[in-house]
Amino acid sequence: MSLATLKRAKHWLSTPEEQIKILSKNEEINIPSFESKIQDMGMKNLKPVGIDIFQVNVGKMCNQVCKHCHVDAGPDRKEIMTRDTMQQILDAMDGMPVKTVDLTGGAPEMNPDFRWFVEELSKKGAEIIVRCNLTIILANPKYHDLPDFFKKHKVNVVSSLPSFTARRTDAQRGDGVFNKSIEALKMLNAVGYGKEGTGLQLDLVYNPSGAYLPDDQSILESEFKGRLKDGFDIDFNNLYSITNLPVSRFLDYLLNSGNYEDYMSELANAFNPIAAEGVMCRNMVSIGWDGYLYDCDFNQMLDLKLNHGAPNHIKDFDWHKVLNREIIINQHCFGCTAGAGSSCGGATT
Hints:
- The chain is of the alpha/beta class.
- 36% of the residues lie in helices and 10% in strands.
- It has an eight-stranded mixed β-sheet.
- The two termini are 36 Å apart.
C-alpha cells in the first residue's frame, strides 16, 4: 500500500479551512455544539489549569504515509523546524515550570537538528518524550543507533502499534510496517526499554482502525502485552488508547466511507463531563514546526492558533498571558471527551 499525502494530491481537504467548514455543520447532522456541552457543565469557556507540557512538532516529514494521520505527514512534506526556532523554545523554557517536552512529527527523528535539540533539552533536565513510529529506526543506517541515543538521554519512547497482528497494522500504516515495528521493538528491548527496573520507558499507542471508539484501555493493554510477549518476546510499559479525531486523513476516510455523520453522533452522544475536565489542552501548549502556538496538536493541524490576548508565536511567549487564555474549541473536541476520554497519554478517566 502506498498513499500520497492530501497535500501532494492537492486534495480539497488538504487545507484547514475546508476541514473546519465540514466540522462546523453540526446542525445538518443534528448534534449539539461542543461549546454548548461545555456551558451545560457550568463552564463559560475552557481554560488552562497549568502549563506542564510543551508538545513540539519538529516537522511533517515522515517515512510513512498512514491512513489515519491527522498531520497528513509523509516523505513529500518539507515543513521542518529550524534550530533557531528550537532555540526560541529553549529560551522560553527558562524559569518556567514546564516539566515535559513531547517531540512529535511526522517522524521527529528526520529533522536534521533532532539530536541537538534532544541534547539541549536533556541539559535543562526536561522529561523528554519522543513519538517514534518505530520503522524509522530501520529506515536508514543513520537511524540504527537511535535506541542507544534514546537510552543515553533517558528519552521516554512512545510508539504507535495499531494491532498485534500484521494484517491490521499494515492495513493502517503500510505494507511491511508490522514486521519492521516488531524488529524495532526488539532493538529497544535489547538496550533495556520496556524492561522492569531499567527506568527506560517504552509505551505503545493504539487507535482504532475504523469509525468507532477504542475498547477499554486496561483490557487492550493486557491483551497486547500477552500477545506481544508470547508471539515475539517483546516487553513494554503502558498502552495508550487514543480516539481518532475527524481531522485530515481520518476525516477524509469518514467522508468517503459514509461514516462521518454516524461517527460524529457517536462522539457527541458519548460526551463525558469528567473527561472534559481533564482534556490535555488544559495543561499543555502545542508548538508548530514554524514556532506558532496552539492549544493542542489537533488545533495545530486545523491552524487554530492561540488568541484571546495570548501571543501566538514562541518568540513572544508570555507565561501569564498563555496561562490565562481561553482555549479554542470546535466539534473535533468531542473526540477527546468521548467515553473514557482521549489524550496523547491515552484515556483520561
